Amino acid sequence: MLILLNKPYDVLCQFTDGDGRQTLADFVPVKGVYPAGRLDRDSEGLVVLTDDGKLQARIADPRHKLEKVYLAQVEGVVTADALVRLRSGVVLNDGPALPAKAQAVSEPDWLWPREPPIRLRKTVPDGWIEITLREGRNRQVRRMCAAVGLPCLRLIRWQVGDWTLDGLSPGEWRQA
């Protein structure tokens, strides 16, 4: 079984939590499925869930180089230099990141409002970057953006391999 979920902001990417926070169980009533990879609590977007351990490993393990596409709203102007640095592979505190595909994009027209809203400052511009990775280290996109001087305000995973968020609102899921 394969389930695609649009994980909302402020939801833990696990099925249980002893502190009463929202988890995947609040949105997916299916038993026996587990996330193939994780999204941080403050990130949104596509989470692939499966009951197939081999498929879960193939999706989550960076050795398989399955591409994951993210849209990042960043603080500051997205410059050509920042994009070149992302494409070259920036050095993070846990070692160099693999080169990423990175391009400046417009705010997606399909984007839902985030609750709570992003705090924007009138005197500081923001922009959007589409980043494609083949590895999935802890908070990697956020750390890569910060390393090139563009702190991440909002992060949405749009695609994992051939699966996308297309047609899923936050909290909605479908079987693939």
What tags apply to this protein structure?
Alpha-Beta Plaits; alpha+beta; single chain; nine-stranded mixed sheet; two-stranded antiparallel ribbon; 2 domains; 176 residues
Average the pLDDT over all residues and give the rounded result: 94
- Tell me the quaternary state: single chain
Low-pLDDT residue intervals, each spanning 5 or more residues: none
Structural class: alpha+beta
Q: How many domains, as an integer?
A: 2
Please compute the radius of gyration using only Cα atoms.
Answer: 16 Å
Instruction: Bin the strand percentage.
Output: 25-35%
**CATH H-level homologous superfamily name of the largest domain:** Alpha-L RNA-binding motif
Looking at the structure, what is the overall shape? Answer: globular
What is the chain-wise order of helices and strands?
Answer: EEEHEHEEEEHEEE
What is the CATH topology classification name of the largest domain? Alpha-Beta Plaits
Number of helices, where a helix is a run of at least 4 consecutive DSSP H or I residues: 3
Would you count the extended β strands for me?
A: 11
Q: Architecture of the largest domain, CATH level 2?
A: 2-Layer Sandwich
CATH class of the largest domain: Alpha Beta
Helix content: 10-25%
Alpha-carbon distance between the two ends: 8 Å
Biggest beta-sheet profile = 9 strands, mixed
